[in-house]
Model the fold of this input.
Amino acid sequence: MNKDQFKQLFADKAAQAFKATFPEAYAATGKKEVFDARFILEHLEKPKDPSMGRFAFPVFRYAKLLGGKPPDIAAGVAEETNRLLDDNAICTAEAVSGFINVRVDPTELASRTLGDVLSRESHYGDSDFGQNRKYLIEYCSANIAKPYGVGHLRSTIIGNSLRRVYKKLGFDVIGINYLGDWGTQFGKMIMAYRMWGEKVNLEKDAVKQLLELYVRFHDEARKDPTLDDEARQAFKQLEDGDSEAVQLWERLKTISLAELDRIHDMLGVEFDIITGESFLNDKMEPLIERLQKAGLTEMSKGALVVPLDDPNLPPCMLKKGDGATLYATRDLAGLIYRWETYHFHESLYVVGTAQSDYFKQAFKVISMLEEAESVPRADRMTGRVKHIGFGWVLFEGETMATRSGKVIFLEDVIDRAVALAHEKILEKNPSLDAIDATAHNIGVGAVIFSQFSVRRHKDVNFDWDEVLSFEGETGPYLQYTHARLCSLLRNYGKDITSKIDVALLDNVEERRVIELLADFPEIIEDAARTYDPHVIAAYLLRLAAALNKFYQRKDENGRIDKIISDNQALSAVRMVLVKSVQTVLGEGLYLLGMEAPEEM
Ligand code: ARG
Done:
């Protein structure tokens, strides 16, 4: 991945130091790899408190191997490492209990980091780690003919961000929207449409009217359960290609797709492929045959199932008693299809945590199939397919359910956020040029950022005041910080040059900002490793906070230490810092899927 020269240097020297300090243990051990620079590099940690050093190497795992206490091992190796690093070293080691903490020379860190950001601009943090390997990310995957709710919004926003993150890491990313355009709910919609459809005007507010049909169907079916049977039959007709059923389905689909397109345009979300469950219709039979041939299927109460060799997982059903296929049947066919088509490095399914067990089942079927067919390890997709779960989105503490009709329409959420942003701008900066466009960017940015306010496994509680505040830990706050930096750069008016004296950046506030800037490439990798853009969101908040401390720094006399002053050399180098933060904030917001307005 991104090479950090300080870490590389330390790892090389520490590896030598280990071997020199413990020559006998090194000669005797069968585990020589733990003395390699590469091993050390891979096991570096970040001290919780940045003042302890830029990175640290824990030595606890050597205690048994070397027959010593961790603090003594750390002390011995740190001393030897420093000797090897020699006097004017750019980093120094210090043993603190069982850790070797490493500090790096601040001027050296500043000159490398600022030089990098200035020369690479938005490409700072790019990596060629992906080597153009295929990377599939499925997100959104809304059910059409139902309103686009906040649950699918969270998938969309997480997936769209991961798509950008993995592109930055050099993968050939394919973003897939796998629409729920098949299954028994379409039987219900068809029935509802047949019964009450003539009253529906599909030209206006079509999705809301479809929802009414859907809710009405559920109400009536509660009173008259035969309706559910009829809906199942209607779906069977659809599967059998009955032309009236197919036509109705096409109609519902067109309406919903138009709605999705419009919302994704508003959000600035992109996909490379829009597909759906129906695409897999003709791919299920070959899959079922394969599973049967591999001896993995069984009849159970009239249904065709795959019993799973995991006591915690119920059998995976492939066909119901009436021969109808299921959601899982299509996903299995889709797994095979995507693997055969793309031979991906990894394939992600960004879907709510509620479906965790479901994905475990599906992936288990695949691994059993690959095992039964003795597919060579290197040709297996097992281990490469991943469910990326996330928690609920709560509005004032409550979830949304389509069936009860208590739905918050996504479009209404976005509209309201934009309207609130509009009000805020009129209050703060009424003379701003493009007010409408800026209000749109801020409103949408607020909605997007709210989804990253906590780790993806946690529930998000959506609170209007919180989400749109310009001061709290919000999207608008980050956008506002970015815009302030842009305005400072405009006021400065001079070129930002790399001919500066970075040694002038010598106070704690400036150094903290530089350390954070230097962290950015790693942060992107962490977000990728954990499949969680929250990592980037939290980092940007730290960066903005550090920047504000730098901004509001007071000198010895208690006066604000202005960034632009009569001291030209100091102003020039500080403006390089400003430019660098603006670049990283802008790129960070981009990775989250947000706009970074230059004025607001
Ligand atoms: N449409 C499904 C739902 O709303 C989500 C699809 C997730 N993706 C998948 N490959 N199963 O529940």
The chain has 21 helices and 13 strands. The chain has a mean pLDDT of 93.
